[in-house]
Amino acid sequence: MKRKTTLALTLLFFFPVIWLNAKNSHPVVKSELIVAPPSNDDCDAATTITVNDNYLCGTVTAGTLSEATASSQATTGCTISSDKANDDVWFKFVATNTSHRIQLQNIVGNQTNLYHMIYNGGTSGSCSSMSLIYCSDPETSNLSGLTVGNTYFIRVFSNSSAAGANTTFDICVGTEPSSPVNDDCVNALAINTFPFTQIYDATGATNNNGFIAASGTCIAMNDGVWFTVTGTGDRFNLLLTPVAWNGAIAVYTGSCGALTCVGTKNAGGIGVVEGYSFDSTLGTTYYINIGYPSGTFDGAEGIFTLGVTLTALSVDEIIAKGFTYYPNPVTGGVLKMSASEPINNINVYTVLGREIRNIKNTDLSYDLDLTDLPAGAYYVRATVGSKSGTFKIIKQ
Questions:
Q1: What pLDDT sits at residue 263?
Q2: Does residue 39 lie in a domain region?
Q3: Last residue of a domain, one of 155, 175, 195
């Protein structure tokens, strides 16, 4: 449940205004409305923010720029003019970690482009001796190198010199959570029961050794969190449902240090559900990266649901291309195959998934020699054009 701390009530004062009626000298009394500025209009009255133990902003503090006035502090040290800080308000928190994230959310009003500055108030939490440490035009800032126990002040104002801002917003301070167990590719979580669905929290995911470079059809991505599946010869259907972040799926073969792209999916957008399907090869390990879709910006991952289902691959799709095979059982040691399009590739696997044949072909037919194999069951995967099919044979 998200908790919100309300900043303060706006105070309304009615002052009597008395003047004499020129005609009869009787006093006339009227009331004039004056709206007080926010209670945290100055640094000395900064509102205390509760620090969250993650980046999910379960506890936020409400703020407003309405009727706020300029503080005495200049904006020296930031690339913004002081006249834009004519509606600043102040917050403070005590650092519980050396790194914290500040987020301005739910911004509503006539000025929605907000700016914030962060000051170190030391152990005393004094406004008079505080020092500027960070400036941020984006509504999210990541602070590092903080001193645990020190008080830090946050100064928020509109990025405009225009007067009369009526903006309201929520502000939260978060703490980087511990990294997920599958933060690194070498610690990928194996998924081996299907259908599969599970909720994960990747909020603390790191970029480890850097971004995952674009290759093949795979886009550049953050090094997010990792999973593996072992090919069954079926089609794997992945469904990613991110909560309040932009998530992407990328699938690879190979190894963590030498990944080979299978495919990727990112329609783009916060909270957009992503789906990706691929045809698996029996026994092949597939690495799945769930992360932020950028190779240059270390974006924040978050909570997501990952679903995995299987669709059995038969020979139906390649039969539509005129594919035939015989005999089965294989009695003479040779399996004959033909199609109306070239049979591009033939793979043979043991029932345990070990590949024992990988044959490239350009003809419309192929005679698969199995005479050197012991009698038993095998799986054959044939690729005709862009379609593949897997079937079981018995070698006698």
A1: 97
A2: yes
A3: 175
* Both structure tokens of 257: 């240090």
Query: What is the domain extent for residue 196?
Result: 185-311
55, HSE (Cβ side, Cα atoms, 13 Å): 26
Q: Cis check for the bond before 180: say yes or no (omega within 30 of 0).
A: no
Q: Are 253 and 231 in contact (CB under 8 A)?
A: no
pLDDT tens profile 219-264: 999 999 999 999 988 899 999 999 989 999 999 999 999 999 999 9
Rounded to whole angstroms, what are the CA distances from 301 to 205, 208, 292, 336?
7, 14, 6, 51
Tell me which residues of the chain have a pLDDT lower than 50: 1-2, 5-15, 17
Same domain, 130 and 241: no
What is the per-residue pLDDT for 33? 58
Residue 225: both structure tokens together: 């969190």
Residue 324 contacts residue 338 (beta carbons within 8 Å): yes
* pLDDT at residue number 13: 47
Contact 123, 183 (CB under 8 A): no
Task: List all residues 6 or more positions away from 384 whose beta carbon is below 8 Å from its beta carbon.
Answer: 318, 321, 323, 339, 341, 342, 343, 344
Number of domain units in the chain: 3
Distances (CA, A) of 222 to 219, 226, 237, 301, 364: 10, 11, 22, 9, 43
Task: Please give the Cα distance from 380 to 315 (Å, whole number).
Answer: 10
Tokens of 169: 């917003």
Give the C-alpha separation, 50 to 171, whole Å: 10
